[in-house]
């Protein structure tokens, strides 16, 4: 995109981090790691999926961000908040999320959403910076959550509560 130009379309980036309770190859994490390929394939086949970060394998568990060696990250891009919401809360992914306390430490603010120009690929460092914005300032147009989602840049209107609570089973 040319400097100073305004994008005509926006995509939604999603970033989250988790701190495993044990090494990824441990029996404790087997219930999580054994589902990675299936859940990633489900994401890629989901309506609205655009892209996801991968490392040496077909997932991002080996991608590290400086200063966060003890966490695993996930970063993906979607055409809309509704498409991402449907994948996160209305597919088999929700069952994996329901078990997250079996495998990961509680992190108070572990996920952020943010708008990017269509065609842009966010970096893990950029996504982590957005998570830090959310932690420092709460939901804003620069970094937000499903509970307080902001419209794409240029769209007017108040934050939207997508009401994730009925879908959060853990």
Oligomeric state, counting identical vs distinct chains: single chain
Radius of gyration: 16 Å
Spatial order of strands in the largest sheet: 2-3-1-4
Query: What is the succession of H and E elements?
Result: EHHEEHHHEH
The residue ranges in which pLDDT falls below 50 over 5 or more consecutive positions are 1-5
Give a verbal description of the structure:
With 170 residues, the chain is α+β, with helices and mostly antiparallel strands. It has a single domain, classed as 2-Layer Sandwich (Alpha-Beta Plaits). The protein has helices at 30-33, 36-45, 81-90, 93-98, 100-103, 124-137, and strands at 10-18, 49-52, 72-78, 111-117. The radius of gyration is 16 Å and the shape is globular. It starts with 9 loop residues before the first strand and ends in a 33-residue tail after the last helix. Residues 1-5 have low confidence and may be disordered.
């Amino acid at each position: 995109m040319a400097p100073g130009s305004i994008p005509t379309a926006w995509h939604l980036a999603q970033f989250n981090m988790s701190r495993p309770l044990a090494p990824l190859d441990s029996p404790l994490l087997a219930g999580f790691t054994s589902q990675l390929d299936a859940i990633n394939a489900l994401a890629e086949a989901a309506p609205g999926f655009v892209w996801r970060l991968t490392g040496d394998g077909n997932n991002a568990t080996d991608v590290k961000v400086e200063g966060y060696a003890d966490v695993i990250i996930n970063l993906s891009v979607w055409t809309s908040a509704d498409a991402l919401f449907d994948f996160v809360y209305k597919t088999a992914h929700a069952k994996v999320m329901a078990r997250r306390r079996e495998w990961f430490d509680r992190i108070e603010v572990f996920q952020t959403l943010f708008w990017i120009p269509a065609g842009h690929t966010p970096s893990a460092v950029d996504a982590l910076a957005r998570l830090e914005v959310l932690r420092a300032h709460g939901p804003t147009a620069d970094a937000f959550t499903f509970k307080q989602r902001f419209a794409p840049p240029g769209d007017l209107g108040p934050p939207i509560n997508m009401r994730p609570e009925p879908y959060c089973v853990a």
